[in-house]
Design a protein that fits this description.
The complex is a heterodimer of chains A (322) and B (579). Chain A has 322 residues and is mainly α. Chain A is 79% helix and 1% strand. In chain A, a hairpin with a 4-residue loop joins strand 1 and strand 2 (85-86). In chain B, the strands form 7 sheets. Chain B has a 5-stranded mixed beta sheet, with helices on both faces. The chains are: A mainly alpha (322), B alpha+beta (579).
């Protein structure tokens, strides 16, 4: 098990370095750079060359990459040209905001999607399951970008919720926590709704398969109440496919929240990376991409642990393989 | 003292006439030019909620040129003079008066008395000298170094006493002290150490304790939440006074929210969660805001025609196209003049700006009543004449397939670069492509990030570009980088050692005289000659200048809207909100 954990950790490290390096390479090789982007069309050649030298952009990519790798080994991810601050100072505060949004959306989606999936999967053919299925298909066909635009529009029309930002400039009555919750509703719902639909579909499929298993039929024959079979016996077996994709969901939440963060002005990693990309702040792009890879690695680890808790055979098999 | 503010008086007369014209041209419905006509006393106190698209890069204007850093500087710092963005007149600010020497080369500025920085430290001529030292310090590489230069040379600034500063220009310079508008006067007592240590550019970064950031402007930075907002509180030591003698600014607090997406900005404005945006409204957002304005939820202001228009230019650097045989016609005046004739400017305005634009034929738009030459010919939309002009340089339809070929039977085709993510530019490039197709010219439009377009421009690795070459100030004398052949914004052929063409040499000579002259009528006449030459050779082809619209909530009052960014906040100390 220790060897397995060590291998997973090494893989996570490799993933972070590989993704950051690829981002650095791609954003460095594309035409233009931070200096041309920030100085604009009227800057003199002299000013441009002076700034390029200041940021080290006049060196070859090889030299730049070598120095960056050496500093990464010291956990220094470079200096943001845009903010004139170390990347390692910028990422945590934004990653924390993204984590708040992503976890809220994940919890909401799980609490809504999984039970609805159990209901629709265990009662095939009923009106309720048909309604749930239809709603899920509609929500699945709407990307988070569209959902967030719709929710922002609804919030603007009704005036019930704040449209953008994470906290009010003046903390209203009810305190900072309630203010945060109010600001979370629109972006979290924009991410959670399609996610809940996906979990519902997965769970419904898995539940339908488990319901047809011989051990369930035997329990029915023994006269065990249906609700007990569904919520106790079948649920555990049916959770496996959902737990298996959880890691990917956590990883994809970061990219899914990208557009939502921009539309709802949520100050997370997505909006930071977008700004870094727009301004060609190569070290910040690499840092944001690395943080995203770290999210993905953590997500798959959590997923594996959840899977092992549900189905001990999985962890035994992986431990043997390790 | 006879010469005190003489230029100012002349400009004021012109400006008052302009203001009257603008007022007469106001729309009478919910879209108006100004909401400045306030009845009774201006309300004091309250909070204004403003949005920007990106956060500031620094609290030090010398370190960054982006619009948000500039806004922060305008809110927190003061400058010697202020150019009135509506009348274009130079107005006193930290310098309460000035006298110009008879030779026009030096100006003596008398500083306001009893002025102190927000931390209570007195403001003196030493701070003015420090501001110039910071701008010219080569180690710091200030973003303002180019701004406070005359003809590419530094000004000499001396202090004769703690409240008097003498600014000497390297040669007679007609725009004079208006170039000081963008130079914030920074506190020597706070930043001198950093300048000496060579770390000035890193000073006042976004992680600086806010108590360290002091200024002479109307507001202080009181809170910065990364990615969310910058909050400003009124500076209790701000020196300027309201007309009634009361303290300024009127507002207690100004909150700048960072909202990267314009749709979210508009929705917040419509729903009352925002008071104003710092940028103009995109043409496609006009209709929904007009509805909101008709319902009385927001005020929509028509600021008139922009003084800037996007333009198309070809790479005219000799030899830049290498051995490409198309260079024989790609760099010809006739091609650009034919393009100007082939593009229907009415269609262009309708497609790109949804009808909210006026045709333009030169670098100045009709909105600029001072420098626009009314005698400028208007190129007619005439595809037959355009084809004839192209035929005169050997570009004809050899294959009878509707497409033009050059004398060697190669297709007449070129690549047009433009900026990705700017709908006006992308739509404009598409209209140019479609219109030129009608005369048999094939255009391949390639949209790139702005940095990539600029990179291609700097390395002269392009055939044609459709982009914005905005002027930084109305006075042509403050744009030598655009007009002179050695200029860094002489976009069609950058930073030439010697003028590449006779007409560029002619423009150089005319602009040299124009900048040196102190006679306003002579300057206008010389500039008209420049515009005439520009029209004849069309190094940049302009099509349409858009109308500028901005919006604000109904509670905002005492505004002085201007076409220039930040349109509603260029004079933040006098903005007020109804309580």
């Amino acid at each position: 098990m220790i060897r397995y954990a060590a291998r997973r950790l090494a893989f996570a490290l490799f993933l972070v370095i590989a993704v950051s390096s690829a981002s650095l390479l791609l954003s460095r090789l594309a035409p233009g750079d931070f200096v041309t982007e920030s100085l604009g069309a009227r800057a003199s050649r002299q000013a441009i060359e002076q700034q390029r030298a200041r940021f080290g952009l006049n060196r070859s990519f090889g030299a730049q990459y070598r120095d960056w790798l050496a500093s990464v080994a010291r956990l220094d991810f470079g200096y943001s040209m845009l903010y004139d601050r170390p990347v390692r100072d910028l990422i945590p505060e934004r990653a924390a905001n993204t984590a708040i949004l992503a976890l809220t959306a994940l919890v909401c989606a799980t609490l809504v999607g999984v039970p609805l999936g159990i209901v629709s999967g265990s009662r095939r053919g009923g009106l309720l399951s048909a309604a749930i299925r239809t709603a899920s298909v509609v929500l699945l066909s709407m990307p988070p970008l569209l959902t967030s635009l719709f929710l922002v529009f609804a919030a603007a029309r009704t005036g019930w919720l704040p449209i953008a930002g994470m906290r009010s400039a003046t903390v209203p009555a009810g305190g900072g926590f309630m203010d945060l919750i109010r600001h979370l509703v629109v972006p979290a719902a924009a991410i959670a709704l399609p996610l809940a639909a996906m979990l519902e579909r997965l769970q419904a499929q898995a539940m339908a398969e488990v319901i047809a298993e011989p051990f369930v039929l035997a329990a029915v024959a023994r006269g065990v109440p249906r609700s007990r079979i569904v919520w106790h016996g079948a649920l555990k077996a049916a959770l496996r496919p959902v737990a298996a994709v959880y890691g990917l969901i956590i990883g994809s939440l970061l990219s899914g929240s990208f557009a939502v963060e921009v539309i709802t002005a949520w100050p997370g990693l997505g909006s930071l990376m977008l700004q870094a990309l727009r301004t060609r702040d190569v070290y910040l792009v690499a840092g944001c991409a690395g943080a995203g890879a770290l999210f993905l690695a953590c997500g798959t680890l959590v997923s594996d642990l959840a899977l092992a808790a549900i189905d001990p055979r999985t962890s035994d098999a992986r431990a043997e393989a390790a | 003292m006879g010469q005190i503010l003489t230029g100012l008086n002349r400009r004021l007369l012109v400006s008052l006439a302009l203001a009257a014209l603008c007022a007469a041209g106001c729309r009478s419905d919910s879209t108006s030019r100004s909401t400045a006509g306030l009845q009774g006393a201006v309300p004091r106190g309250g909070e204004l909620l403003v949005s920007v698209r990106s956060e500031p890069r620094s609290f030090n204007r010398h370190a960054a040129r982006d619009t948000t850093t500039d806004l922060v500087s305008k809110l927190t710092q003061g400058s010697l003079i202020r150019v009135n963005q509506v009348t274009q007149a130079v107005e006193p600010w930290l310098a309460e008066s000035w006298t110009t020497a008879a030779d026009g080369r030096s100006v003596t500025l008398h500083l306001a008395r009893d002025v102190s920085f927000s931390d209570g430290h007195p403001f003196t001529a030493g701070d003015v000298l420090f501001a110039f030292e910071a701008a010219y310090d080569e180690k710091s590489g200030s973003a303002l170094a180019d701004v406070v230069q005359a003809g590419g040379k530094k000004l000499v600034v001396t202090a004769t006493d703690p409240l008097t500063v003498v600014v000497t220009f390297p040669s007679p310079f007609a725009p004079g002290i208006r170039i000081l508008n963008d130079l914030p006067i920074l506190p020597r007592h706070k930043l001198e150490g950093a300048l000496k240590a060579g770390t000035f550019r890193k000073s006042w970064g976004l992680d600086t304790p806010l108590s360290e950031i002091v200024g002479l402007g109307p507001f202080l930075v009181s809170e910065y939440v990364p990615g969310q907002r910058v909050v400003f509180a009124r500076n209790p030591r701000y020196f300027a006074k309201a007309p009634d003698g009361g303290a300024l600014p009127y507002l207690d607090r100004l909150v700048v929210e960072i909202i990267p997406d314009q749709s979210a900005e508009l929705l917040r404005l419509e729903s009352g969660q925002l008071d104003m945006m710092t940028s103009e409204i995109a043409p496609d957002a006009y209709a929904p805001l007009k509805r909101a304005a008709d319902q009385g939820r927001v005020r929509l202001l028509d600021l008139g025609v922009s003084r800037n228009a996007d333009g198309l230019w070809f790479n005219l650097k000799p030899g830049a196209l290498g051995g490409d045989p198309r260079a024989a016609w790609l760099q010809r005046d006739e091609l650009r003049r034919a393009i100007s004739m082939a593009v229907d400017r009415k269609l262009f305005a309708d497609t790109v700006f949804f009808g909210a634009g006026v045709p333009v034929y030169g670098p100045e738009t009709p909105a600029d009543k001072v420098w626009y030459w009314p005698g400028l010919p208007q190129t007619p939309h005439d595809t037959a004449a355009a084809k004839q002009l192209l035929a005169s340089i050997g570009l004809t339809d050899h294959g009878r397939d509707g497409l033009l070929d050059d004398p060697q039977n190669r297709p007449v085709r070129f690549t047009l670069l433009t900026q990705k993510g700017r709908p006006n530019l992308e739509r404009g490039a598409a209209v140019i492509r479609d219109e030129l197709k009608k005369i048999g010219v094939t255009v391949d439009v390639v949209a790139l990030d702005s940095g990539a377009v600029i990179d291609q421009l700097l390395h002269a690795r392009y055939e044609a570009i459709y982009f914005n070459a905005d002027k930084t100030d109305l006075d042509p004398g403050t744009n030598p980088d655009f007009w002179f052949s050695f200029g860094s914004a002489h976009v069609w052929n950058l930073e030439q050692r010697a003028p590449a063409t006779p007409w560029e040499r002619q423009i150089d000579a005319l602009m040299t005289r124009q900048i040196a002259s102190t006679d306003e009528a002579e300057r206008q006449s010389l500039y008209a000659d420049v515009q005439k030459i520009f029209f004849e050779h069309a190094p940049i082809v302009y099509f349409v200048a858009p109308r500028i619209y901005v919006a604000h909530s109904v509670r905002v009052t005492n505004l002085t809207p201007s076409e220039y960014r930040p349109q509603l906040l260029w004079r933040p100390d006098t903005v007020a909100v109804a309580r």
